[in-house]
Amino acid sequence: MRTIIFITTLLLMTGHMAMAAEIKNYTLHISKINQEAANLHITCSFSLDFQNEDSISMNLGGGQEFSIENLKVDGDTLEYEYNREAKNIVIRKKAKRSVHVTINYNYTNLSAFFIYGEGDTELWETSFGEHFYPYIPNKYMNVAINVETPDSLSFLCSYPLKSSHTTNYSSKLKHILSQSITLAFMRNNAYQQTAAYLPDKVSVYQIKDMQCGKKRYEELLQLTKASIVFLAKSMAKTIFPMHEM
Q1: Which one, out of 17, 40, 98, 196, has a CA that is 20 to 30 A from the CA of 105?
Q2: Which has more confidence, 239 or 70?
């Protein structure tokens, strides 16, 4: 009888510990339309299930004083506090355990991106204490992402996005590390674009008047192919450790 009580108690405790706050139905819309260099307009929405928590903290913001402008948070029965110095937004439960949240803002932190050489590429990533979209760090999430660009820019993402036309990219990303979305916006008039097959199609961007020779180009393609094979094998061993590719 004591064994049964012990097992039942253990299961109840485990179930209680598992009742962690959850973020679901995350959508992320990023626009470079009518945005100055180093600026993004971001709209995101998600459902929060607080479970047994009273609040949820998400990374958001950067080191500069005006990294986030025109912040607007909409949602039923919730309160929020944007902490500029702590670089986070804390959403607190008022009544309901589950709420839907929509956040709109302009991200203007100049140190959130890098300028790549003479190509004037904007590289946006969540590193060095910069967080241009809200997320709980080191968690896996599903997110529907959409990116809009003007005709003057080409776009790359750390995850494959489908393009309905040359200025709109979207996809539903599943089980990605929350802080792993990286973006690159490149001026079309600064780059020469070519395509190669490894065997899948890849796009190659080189700064105009600074392109490498044919021999170096082929060498870089082989290095890229070897990297893809290596990473595929590494991921297979991590996800399916009992199987070899």
Answers
A1: 98
A2: 70
User: What per-residue confidence (pLDDT) applies to 26?
Assistant: 98
131 contacts 103 by C-beta, under 8 angstroms: no
HEC assignment per residue over 60-113: EECCCCCCEEEEEEEECCEEEEEECCCCEEEEEECCCCEEEEEEEEEECCHHHE
pLDDT at 75 over 70: yes
Which amino acid does the sequence have at 84? Answer: R
Rounded CA separation 192/118 (Å): 13
Coil, helix or strand at residue 51: coil
Report whether 104 contacts 70 (CB < 8 A). Answer: yes
pLDDT of 91 above 80: yes
Helices (H) and strands (E) in the chain, counts: 2, 17
What is the model's pTM?
A: 0.81
pLDDT of 51 above 60: yes
**Comparing C-alpha atoms, which of 176, 150, 180, 146 is closest to residue 163?**
146
**Gap between the Cα atoms of 47 and 146, Å rounded:** 18
